[in-house]
Amino acid sequence: MGNGLSDQTSILSSLPSFQSFHIVILGLDCAGKTTVLYRLQFNEFVNTVPTKGFNTEKIKILTHATR
């Protein structure tokens, strides 16, 4: 799941840069949810440990989409 974000610019370029979103990431144990979250937040892969409970993060993503 986390490997799918190796080219995140193509995924995020379709989002409006002025709009706020609430996103929920659901999945099975050890599916890569935290990896996806940290990939979006830090723009790099981070070694993670199993999450107890849940994570909440505020992420600001700047896109340079032109329409």
Features:
67 residues, elongated, mainly alpha
Tell me the layout of helices and strands.
Layout: H1 8-12, H2 33-42
- Give the uncertain stretches in residue-range form: none
Structural class category: mainly alpha
- Rg calc: 13 Å
Question: What is the terminal separation in angstroms?
Answer: 29 Å
Number of helices: 2
H/E element order: HH
- Apparent shape: elongated
Q: Strand percentage, roughly? A: under 5%
Number of strands: 0
Q: Note the main sheet.
A: none
| Count of structural domains | 1
Mean of all residue-level pLDDT scores? 76
Report the helical percentage: 10-25%
Brief digest:
The protein has two helices and no strands.
Can you walk through the features of this model?
The chain has 67 residues and is an all-alpha fold. The protein has one domain (1-67). It is 22% helix and 0% strand. The chain has two helices and no strands. The longest helix has 10 residues, at 33-42. The termini are far apart.
